[in-house]
UniProtKB/TrEMBL annotation, chain A:
<dbReference type="GO" id="GO:0032447">
    <property type="term" value="P:protein urmylation"/>
</dbReference>
<dbReference type="GO" id="GO:0000049">
    <property type="term" value="F:tRNA binding"/>
</dbReference>
<dbReference type="InterPro" id="IPR019407">
    <property type="entry name" value="CTU2"/>
</dbReference>
<comment type="function">
    <text>Plays a central role in 2-thiolation of mcm(5)S(2)U at tRNA wobble positions of tRNA(Lys), tRNA(Glu) and tRNA(Gln). May act by forming a heterodimer with CTU1/ATPBD3 that ligates sulfur from thiocarboxylated URM1 onto the uridine of tRNAs at wobble position.</text>
</comment>
<dbReference type="GO" id="GO:0002143">
    <property type="term" value="P:tRNA wobble position uridine thiolation"/>
</dbReference>
<protein>
    <recommendedName>
        <fullName>Cytoplasmic tRNA 2-thiolation protein 2</fullName>
    </recommendedName>
</protein>
<keyword id="KW-0963">Cytoplasm</keyword>
<keyword id="KW-0819">tRNA processing</keyword>
<dbReference type="GO" id="GO:0016779">
    <property type="term" value="F:nucleotidyltransferase activity"/>
</dbReference>
Automatic annotation (TrEMBL), chain B:
<feature type="domain" description="Cytoplasmic tRNA 2-thiolation protein 1 C-terminal">
    <location>
        <begin position="283"/>
        <end position="313"/>
    </location>
</feature>
<comment type="function">
    <text>Plays a central role in 2-thiolation of mcm(5)S(2)U at tRNA wobble positions of tRNA(Lys), tRNA(Glu) and tRNA(Gln). Directly binds tRNAs and probably acts by catalyzing adenylation of tRNAs, an intermediate required for 2-thiolation. It is unclear whether it acts as a sulfurtransferase that transfers sulfur from thiocarboxylated URM1 onto the uridine of tRNAs at wobble position.</text>
</comment>
<feature type="binding site">
    <location>
        <position position="88"/>
    </location>
    <ligand>
        <name>ATP</name>
    </ligand>
</feature>
<keyword id="KW-0547">Nucleotide-binding</keyword>
<feature type="binding site">
    <location>
        <position position="62"/>
    </location>
    <ligand>
        <name>ATP</name>
    </ligand>
</feature>
<dbReference type="GO" id="GO:0005524">
    <property type="term" value="F:ATP binding"/>
</dbReference>
<dbReference type="GO" id="GO:0016779">
    <property type="term" value="F:nucleotidyltransferase activity"/>
</dbReference>
<dbReference type="InterPro" id="IPR032442">
    <property type="entry name" value="CTU1_C"/>
</dbReference>
<dbReference type="InterPro" id="IPR011063">
    <property type="entry name" value="TilS/TtcA_N"/>
</dbReference>
Amino acid sequence: MCQVEEEYSGPLEKTSLPTVSKKCMKCKESTAVLIIRVGDAFCRDCFREYFVHKFRAMLGKNRVIFPGEKVLLAVSGGPASSSMLTQVQEGLSRDAPKKLRFAPGIIYIDEGGACDQNAEEREKTLSQMEAIFRKTGFPYHIVSLEQVFSLPNSVLEPVSCGPERPGSSYKAAVDQYLQQKEVNQRQGQLATEEAQDAVAHLSVQASQVSPEHKQALEKLFSSLKTLTARQDMLQTLRQHLILHTARLNGYSKVMMGDSCTRLAIRLLSNISLGRGASLAVDTGFSDPRYGDVVIVRPMRDYSSKEIAFYNRLFGVRSLFISGLGTKTSDKASIQQLTESFVIKLQADFPSTVSTIYRTSEKLHTACPPQTSGAVAADKCLLCLCAVCNKADAASASHASLISERLSRGELGMEAKIDPASCCPSGTLDPFSCQREGQGCGEGGSCTAGRAPAPADLKSLLCYSCRLTVKDMAAEDTLPPYITSEAEKRWNRAQLKEEVREFLLEDEDEEVG
Amino acid sequence: MPVQCSSCACSRAVLKRPKTGHSLCKGCFFWAFEEETHRTITSARLFDRGETVAIGASGGKDSTVLAYVLKVLNERYDYGLNLLLLSVDEGITGYRDHSLEAVKRNQQQYDLPLKIVSYEELYGWTMDAIVKQVGVKNNCTFCGVFRRQALDRGAVMLNVDKICTGHNADDVAETVLMNVLRGDVARLNRCTAVSTAGGGSDGVVPRCKPLKYAYEKEIVLYAYFKKLHYFSTECVYSPNAYRGHARAFLKDLEAVRPSAIADVIHSGENLSLKEGVKMPVQGTCSRCGYISSQALCKSCVLLEGLNRGLPKLGIGKHHRLHGRILARQPLTPVEEEKMKTLEF
Ligand SMILES: [Zn+2]
Ligand SMILES: [Zn+2]
Ligand SMILES: [Zn+2]
Ligand SMILES: [Zn+2]
Ligand SMILES: [Zn+2]
């Protein structure tokens, strides 16, 4: 059938060789050294000004970072986060025109243990990263991925985000900050930045990783059967370590160095991974899913090309660190496939990234997380996004479940539709069908009296994280903080089931 | 060693389900495929007893399988529907002849009434005549726009209650990806719907897609084992660039993780737009009464261009000319010149 049902749009914009104008478009005096987009030629100085301005404009526009607030910069060693680090340094320097006024720290997660790096490689990378961090004078935290095996349950416990700070309180915070600064100066105290330097160094060297944890991590990653699942798990564990470190050290904001190219890739790859419901928090400027610690993405207006130009022109060092999948083909995982797809398309059609990126700005979560008193059971155990089990029988997730069960012979041919036996209320099966009389539970499998499986992890996960766990050979290789939190939630839910008939209203569980 | 069917555990498996990876025997695969379609129909309440339902039949695999399965389910579960096949003849020499043959065979085999509506009867133009005027490069615009309304106009003519089309899971997932790639948020929001009420952008008759969750590969397997005859009706003209890229990407995704097709649809179903994002205002065409965001619907503009010998009228965005078209006023010589030149 002809597929051209949608209205046509004009021909795609093809790359054309830019006509190089020799003069900078901004100052119209100096010779241009680079062209960002067709027609936008900049000289070195004007490009620097443009780049620096964009960073501060992004923070200024969004007004989420309060003066004096402790902000953790997540640096991976890659070009974008390294560039972000220099922007913060620049913004805090004394002679900066619109000085940034927060207190930064750095976190680096050493993923070597999951990526087949040998001890030597890891040691070398760490010492290079440390050298970069030390130069900044900011406190820094080097955390190895193996440390997930000593994380406490509390990482996964939801924290209600306090009453939202109204716009006026930003001004109040500024005033307070200025007063405090005056006092400090009068008393000749150290500036906050320097004081914090002394507190710093919670660094853990790779050599200090315990052999048990090292082994446990290897077991966990070899239990994940696909590269797609390994990359997804790595991302999740990384976030947990960053969150924990932030809480432990009183950081209330975390800055991630995601460029707009990176976010466009993530948007498309998350759609392919079934994460549609969380696109807004996964790709937006600020990500409030953790409640007390908010993720911000100040680099989201830069393309990776701009960042590469800046780093080259101004000598920003970044490291190439081999990661998961570095040595595999670009079709080895959903994430890598998407990345190479977007980059190839961008080379042919220069508007690709910005078009996808603009889509992200028009979306919000279908099931927004509750503003206050978020309930544990409503958040995915792994990614902490709102789990939106609409339990709608007319949905892709329900249809997939039906396909699975039909293929396993659980919904027999001879079965008759019996609405009464369909999914007893209170079953924790996230797919349980709530529409009556639609015959979800034909056959015996879904009927009343079914003993719940022992702590079925999947029932506590969002659609996408469930796919990752499905690709896992052994769920018991997960770090203890995850399995024990799962146990806890499961017990709590069972308990609630037992006392259900005595409860007068379906009161939300209190956060605690 | 023969593999046993994972469903009945007694017969020998003959295929590996592309959707779930399970090995199934023929009987269990048929059952699963039909049952899944049945559940899509009942869970979304696609039909009501006593309705006359037109199956958009192109002679291709999707609509052939759809017609067969609907016939089976209508009897098995006593839906009480009057089913009929509805085909569009665009008037492309050599293109439709074979596919219409296939549709006619379906009619006989399944014992369903068939109605063929031609472009000539609906628009006064055959595709062959259109190609003559606009060239091969641009005719997909016409064939897409005209076809969308053709099914609807045919359905109105036959007084049917609903149209169902053979869109499968791959088509829906592809559309989600395509709308992301071209930043079409309004369509992104709508494209996963299993049914649309009448009066939407597709026309006045309500539409639905009972095969929305069926993988294309399984549709082919079903047709193969049921020995259903179909004609591969890839449009003779290439699909547009966005869809081509989206399709290739989806195939790659499926190869990496077979559930990806369902996963993309799940994502699409759970997206929602920020309030305040501008959605195109829906109005109606002041000439033919179809839904249109402009004064004239696309197909009326295309027709006007054809009839005036100014084919380019329908191919760019020329909304400012709508007023004069409606008033049947002539264009200026400069405008005429612009609308004439077309690359062949
Ligand atoms: Zn300049
Ligand atoms: Zn999750
Ligand atoms: Zn069988
Ligand atoms: Zn066509
Ligand atoms: Zn019209």
